[in-house]
Amino acid sequence: MGGIPVDRADSLGKACFNAVDLQKNDRTPMMEHFDFDLFVIGGGSGGVRAARMAAQRGARVALAEAGGVARLGGTCVNVGCIPKKLYSYAAHYAEAFEEAHGFGWEVQPPKLNWPLLKSNRAREITRLNGVYLQLLTSAGVQLFEQHARLVDAHTVQLDARRCSAGNILIATGGWPSVPNVPGREHALTSNEIFDLEPFPARLLVVGGGYIACEFASIFNGLGSQVIQLYRGEQVLRGFDDEVRDFIAAEMRKAGVDLRVKSGVSGIERTEDGLMVRLNGGDSATVDAVLYATGRAPNVQGMGLEAVGVAQGQDGAILVNEHYQSSVPSIYALGDVTARIQLTPVALGEAMALVDHLFGPAAGKAQRGMSYEFIPTAVFTHPNIGTVGYTEAQARSKFGRITAYRSDFKPLKHTLSGSSERTLMKLLVDDASDRVVGLHMVGPDAGEVVQGFAVALKAGATKAVFDATVGIHPTAAEEFVTMREPVREAAAAAP
Fold it and tell me: Beta 36-41 vs 288-291: how paired, if at all?
């Protein structure tokens, strides 16, 4: 039976105990006196995956999403990964038009139609919202398009009713965090930047993490004059140091005015735009200011404190290895736990949790979630792809490490006229010969590194890399042809 969004159903006044009931005879007796076996708060990637999979196992499942159907898919679908990647594609076309001259194409000066880009993006997001709705309803999940908060260990308060559940899952994600600087009301976050009107000819980005670097690259590519400020020594803290230095140089080369050890002391609206006062006394006048200075767990107004759910820094819900909070019937996963804030991680956690609560699917083994060798990409221009340990982390964990590094102009740019370069790096544990870190800065780095992530997860050694035949001519073949180390293990020992 397909579930029906409660707010769209004719039976709006039905009590929770009349909700969809699947395979009642298969449920354990202890769950019978609850309205649901699992109540999920939050309709992002992790919440939807957990709800759908649990319902497919025969559990009675409900999901509450305060933003309604238009917010299904969470940050990733609505204001994160998907729209950001679409805008990154759009920004790359400006480079492609310019580079086409070197390959014999006579191209008229291009012009960005910003309203059309926004409209096309919005249409695609709406389509994806519908896909998520169909996934839930076809599995039999009861959808409440309402805000939910905890009343006790087994009770959720909706707008005008209460529901009980054997287990409650909090998957409400994160929310952009803006520091309390004078004039902060004039600043945008990543939630609003996609629909900014008009297009900002001058944009100031505050922050040095991947979101800040991505938007600085994207709007620079789309035609804005971009200033990026970061208070630290170098952008992308937590990434390999050589990757950080390399991408900073490439971004500056592409036109981003990247300034480290710099911050904002205040923002004022003037006739000429937003006047941003910088630490040290300088100022810059821009059309828009984007704050990308981090995200905090989205836990406000959920009643966590009253129920006794333990929280850490910025309100993050503390959980054990089975995503169980300090209240045994309440679980949390994804960005709201502030561990590894990546959509595929939330999906993996959701599958592991459902197996833990309701058992694995027929004929399948119990799933767990490993946090080692998780690949990730940063959609700067050029892209970053990385899996495994940074050089500093690898030396700390394994001791004797040999580093291999290659920095080159890709074949494409021998004719394109672009000065963009590509960086590739391998880190090898000397004791086992295992490749424990792989990093790339260059076109389609995420696509390249995804394949190598399988090799690292499987424990591939440098000898295996050396024995692998490369595909020629590609950039990716460099990973299997690097032979000369740039730093010997003995010389770099602690």
Answer: unpaired
DSSP 26: G
Q: Is 413 a catalytic residue?
A: no
* Local structure of 143: helix, strand or coil: strand
Q: Which is the catalytic residue, given 147, 322, 439, 472?
A: 472
Q: What is the pLDDT of residues 75-112, one digit of tens each?
A: 999 999 999 999 999 999 999 999 999 999 998 999 99
Is residue 19 over pLDDT 70? no
- Which structural domains are found in the chain, ordered by start? 6-75+118-175+297-358 (3.50.50.60), 184-293 (3.50.50.60), 376-480 (3.30.390.30)
pLDDT (tens digit per residue) in 386-434: 999 999 999 999 999 999 999 999 999 999 999 999 999 999 999 999 9
Return left, alpha or beta for 14; rule: phi > 0 is left, psi -120 to 50 is alpha, else beta.
Answer: beta
CA gap 69, 294 in Å, rounded: 26
121: enclosing H helix or E strand: helix 114-139
Q: What letter does residue 361 receive in the DSSP assignment? A: P
